[in-house]
Amino acid sequence: MENASSTDTVFVFVHGAWHGSGQWAATQRALAGLGAASVAVDLPGHGFDAPLPTGYLLPGQPGLLTERSQLAAVTMDDCAEAVLSVLRQVRRHRTAVLVAHSAGGGPASLAAERAPELVDRIVYLSAFVPGGRARFSDYLGSPENASALGRNLDLGDPEALGAVRINPLSPDPAYLDELRETHYHDTPLDRFDRWRSALSPDLPLAIPTAPVTLTATRWGRIPRTFLRCAEDRALAPAAQDLMIAEADRAFPRSPFTVRTLPGSHTPFAARPGELATVLVS
Fold this sequence. Notes:
Elements: E1 9-14, H1 25-33, E2 37-41, H2 76-89, E3 95-101, H3 105-114, E4 121-125, H4 136-140, H5 158-161, E5 163-165, H6 173-183, H7 189-197, E6 202-204, H8 206-209, E7 224-229, H9 237-250, E8 257-261, H10 267-270, H11 272-280
Parallel strand pairs: 1-2, 1-3, 3-4, 4-7, 7-8
Antiparallel strand pairs: 5-6
Helix pairs in contact: 1-11, 2-3
């Protein structure tokens, strides 16, 4: 897309695991300064209204490793519908650009597959692309992603919990160091403490594990861009490249336009102005 403007284009942001709509705020402010409209989605179980494990905010965090998540019943369909609801609201704009980060690529892709007429371009910001493999977990566990960090962040048994659970409020300095090195290594430490406090502990298990099926006549017809994160430690660049290559091979009609950004998995935290500039260019 070219020359985004407040009257012509709206960016619809879909966050990744444990994040929420609020984490896009700095990028949205930068976009507004460039004349572009935007809106951010809260996927079910995320954002300030996300239900928390009952002991999460209590001293000692009782039950955090074993209490079944209140989000266990959330489905990929539920998440895609949240995206579609926002896309329907903003369709008065001439151009709608859907921007998905990380695990948000699954719900965004399914929404675009179900209503391609609502999406003029889809942008994957180091995000899951189900073009070659149907589940995000298929790429997370691939040899290409072997260098990724964060394998010690998950708590308990995800199947028993019904969620992939982390502890952003952990009192353990080693745990917090791994959280920062995985997702926010280029975000200043004082800002990281504020960012982690806004994360939700539970990711509905369906988001990384439920299959997303795409077709050439629907998702495959939408122009698409992949924004690679060159120093990504949560989703290795090699895994990002694998998703791009497999999607282009499966859906050659409209191959990815690929751009590379410097830095970590979360450029909306470390350099939101730069991210906004890339989006409108």
